[in-house]
Amino acid sequence: MQNGVEENILSSVWIKAEAERLGFSACGFAKAQPVDEGHRQFFHDWVQRGLHADMTYLERNMDKRSNPACLVEDCRTIISVALNYFPKTFIPAHQPQISWYAYGRDYHEVMKEKLQALLGTIQKQYSDANVTGRCFCDTAPIFERYWAWQCGLGWIGRNKQLIIPHAGSTYFLGEIFLNQQVDQYGIPMNDHCGNCMRCIEHCPTDALTLHKGLDARKCLSYLTIENRGEIPVEAASKMHPYVYGCDRCQQVCPYLKFAVPTHEKDFSPTSELLSMDWSSWKELTQESYQRVFKGSAVKRAKYPGLQRNVHALSIAEKRDDDTFNMDES
Ligand code: SF4
Ligand code: SF4
């Protein structure tokens, strides 16, 4: 009984099947309870050390981050879903690169539509149960990878990505905080990184460490996207061939071999993006930026941020000509 009302227990199998029908690659369930003290403490220490760089929003809302009930009062279950973004078509290797996740339409929008659709179909199926929920994708203080792990989707690798066994790590994560229980909950998965250190060894800026995790101040993803200041010269010298983001710690992960191309048409790059050579990046105007990156997650960096990235790359690599060849570096 909840508030004197007979409760329904929702079918986890049925919800998983609906999630799959909507295009999600994985779906799992965790009981809404406070976050493990160990995980909470690690995050607290990480922030205290300043490893979150200028992302000051990470310093706030620790109560909500640590307890789903502080975010959604009547939350009983967390549904975690994963949406594949591994590209079907790649930007040619001799051209400037952007992170795979940003190839297509902004994932926040795509994920939001799919999560709302999943919630809607659950409400329709259990119309007598007063199902309510809230959908999230990078939109609230939530330990998303932690909950995906709790839901049994995979484990958090040394590259700080959620790794799904036999599927890799190129997934967007989303959550529904639901006011109902389901009949079966996930079991957190053991870590399968084993003795592998490839992501740590191949990070060009030494941003990954075994015990402290990610140092965002050194990470090229942070420095070229979230960062609003200059890119330190030392880090800029490691950017090539990326002009936005960095995928190296995913690319070297042995679990990437399980990745399959996404079926999500919205994540396909446009022909214009695929054809952007070094001179197109250097000559990118505000107008062409608005056109090429309309509805794209690349806009997170904003036009001045992209210009800064191009400038940093050109200075570091002394790229004042029109060539941009992987073999040169
Ligand atoms: S995204 Fe690039 S810079 Fe950041 S941790 Fe991974 S490999 Fe290192
Ligand atoms: S590269 Fe190795 S250590 Fe890093 S996340 Fe993948 S399996 Fe784990």
Number of domains: 2
Strand order of the largest sheet: 2-3-8-5
Radius of gyration: 21 Å
Net shape: globular
The topology string of helices and strands comes to EHEHHHEEHEHEEEEHEEHHEHHHHH
Bound molecules: iron/sulfur cluster
Low-confidence stretches: none
Count of individual beta strands: 12
The largest pleated sheet is described as: 4 strands, antiparallel
Classify the helix fraction into a percent range.
25-40%
Q: What distance lies between the first and last C-alpha atoms, to the nearest angstrom?
A: 65 Å
* Overall mean confidence score, pLDDT: 94
Helix count from the secondary structure assignment: 14
Range of strand content: 5-15%
By secondary-structure content and strand pairing, the structural class works out as alpha+beta
Structural key phrases:
single chain; binds iron/sulfur cluster; 329 residues; alpha+beta; 14 helices; four-stranded antiparallel β-sheet; 13% strand; 2 domains; two-stranded parallel ribbon; 12 strands
Structure in a nutshell:
This protein is of the alpha+beta class.
Could you please describe the fold and organization of this structure?
There is one protein chain. With 329 residues, this protein is an alpha+beta fold. 33% of the residues lie in helices and 13% in strands. It is built from 14 helices and twelve strands. It has helices at 12-21, 37-48, 62-66, 68-71, 107-125, 144-150, 198-202, 220-226, 233-236, 248-251, 271-274, 278-282, 286-292, 302-317, and strands at 9-10, 26-31, 77-84, 97-98, 133-136, 155-156, 162-163, 171-178, 181-182, 208-209, 213-214, 242-244. Strand 6 (155-156) and strand 7 (162-163) form a beta hairpin. The radius of gyration is 21 Å and the shape is globular. The N and C termini lie far apart (65 Å). The site of one iron/sulfur cluster (SF4) has 12 residues, from helix 7.
